[in-house]
Amino acid sequence: MPIVFEDVDYVYDPETPWQTTALRDVSLRIEDGEFVGIVGPTGSGKSTLVQHLNGILKPTCGRVRVDDIEVGADRGRMKELRQKVGLVFQYPEHQLFEETVRDDIAFGPKNIGLSEDEVQRRVRWACRAVDLDEQILDRSPFELSGGQMRRAAIAGVLAMKCRVLVMDEPTAGLDPRGRANMLDQMRRLHSGGMTIIMVSHGIDDIAQIADRVIVMNEGSIGMQGTTREIFRRYEDLQALSLQVPRTAQIMRRLREAGIPVPVDVLTINEAADALAEVLRGKNCGAEEHNHRSVHSR
Amino acid sequence: MPETPLIEMRGVSYSYRRGEAAEVAALQDIDLQICPGEFVAVVGANGSGKSTLAKLMNALLLPTEGEVSVSGLSTLQEEYRWDIRRKVGMVFQNPDNQLVSTTVEEEVAFGLENIGIPTDEMRQIVPEMLGDVGMGSHLRDEPHNLSGGQKQRVAIAAVLSMAPDCLVMDEATSMLDPQGRADVLDVTRRLCRERGLAVIWISHFMEEAAEADRIVVLNRGAVAADAAPRHLFAGAVELEDMGLDTPAVTQLAGEMRSRGFSIPAGITETDELVRAICQLYLKT
To answer: Where are the beta strands (DSSP E) in chain B?
Structure first.
């Protein structure tokens, strides 16, 4: 069953001089198995939004439903909610605390009273899901590299066998290989049926991986649509000081220089294919056709 | 004519927990020179030794072997360390861990006070430094109300007030949003150009590194390459094997070459690719 926000407002420090409205009239729906990217400038409400998903925050007005659980209202079902929705914060490695990686990953499953066998099964499964070598399970989390620590922290959330995984800036601070690996792992989890919601400043990452994008602006939803629809809207994004993916930026420059390429590409490969098609068409004497297609766009 | 280096590293190695069973060799046998006014990017996978290299440059760490000198002063000599830290200023990754004062102007005045600058001189310098980083209209703001990018620019201003010769930016943009990142890079490049400050720019973002005069690639604690961006990205070094990648425009150029189009190697700027494609397109 889906995640539904209906007319949600969230106010920090209500009825004090510091009162700030972080979310205003947010309505959205996320279906099972979707991969949704959430983007927006700093302070636009992205993190506040996702913290409603597992009940860390409760809406000041409006309703948030995850399956048949109403966040904030069904108080007795918060534990159930947290098993459904796993939330990985920014820099989750800062929250590792146990003596061994194994204990850290096992913390959640143990806490909900699973048998030791089941706990260990889940620890091994979560490790595999994030590509962590089981050999490091008995080491201190603080001896791991930055990328390994991040994956250990994510494994701790996955070990709850959540159906929805929410990740806030999962690739921040990782090197290019670490970033690519993280995206691969998310892709794998998604193809296994998990709903994934990823908050990120990394427009290029979102472009590669999300089905749909929600753009937050000053606490409200600025735009939403398929990834391609959203990243086609160059001017609208720029008005929110957001960018289109780097590949799309290059294609725009080519187009400005008179090369009739599409500008709504999302990956390098797509861009190369489209550009090759235009160049080959030209060499085959298809110039007229291409020029017409520029004007018709 | 070889310029006198501002920072020189000769045979530098550094190990954490030296002498213990868990000793970790972070850097091995580094020879590196940084000239005055150069903009040098340092890239490398997580754990390749970038931050260790940075901390050796201003005597926050001392080499376990070899020698680091700044304007000819060795960091091994205790009496030079104060001077060296003034010459080589550092800005770190987390914008929330660097500011200590209650207002933006106090943040910059703090360092000046420490080196005994008289108050009326401070009144002149502080707004000037903050103006230089585009924060001139935020003098009385409280640091915690600023965005990450603004905080990092205040941190740069605080470093500038010490009149350094070199600014070391240790992943100073990695926690910022794209706008904040662009602003911090712009300010840093301008300071390099206009004030002749040398800059060490440590980053995971190849697009940023591509704008440097020179890129130093660290791999497992050693210098794997030290070259101009276009040479490096022309494919002379297997960056992917080291956990790195190349700018999007370089990748696209490579994909076009592998699809049989004659595009020159080592393209690092969009304009270059546009020119090369236009040439192909207009050729009949």
So the answer is: 7-16, 24-34, 39-43, 65-70, 73-74, 88-91, 166-170, 198-202, 214-219, 222-227
Tally the domains of chain B.
1
pLDDT tens digits, A84-109: 999 999 888 888 888 999 999 999 99
Q: What gap in Å lies between CA A225 and CA A233, rounded to an integer?
A: 11
Domain hosting residue B69, numbered range: 7-228
What's the confidence (pLDDT) of residue B95?
A: 86
Chain B residue with CA closest to A284: the answer is B284
Note whether B45 contacts A175, CB cutoff 8 Å. yes
Nearest residue in A to B281, CA atom: A279
Is B250 inside a domain boundary? no
- B96 within some domain: yes
Interface pTM, i.e. ipTM? 0.85
**Best residue of A94, A169, A237, A279 to probe chain B, by most B CBs closer than 10 Å:** A279
Query: Is residue A34 over pLDDT 50?
Result: yes
pLDDT above 70: residue B110: yes
Binning pLDDT at 50, 70 and 90, where does residue B100 land?
confident
What is the distance between the alpha carbons of residues B151 and B183, in angstroms, rounded to a whole number? 11
Task: Report yes or no: A76 at the B interface, CB cutoff 8 Å.
Answer: no
For residue B119, being part of any structural domain is answered with: yes
Angstroms from B13 CA to nearest CA on chain A? 20
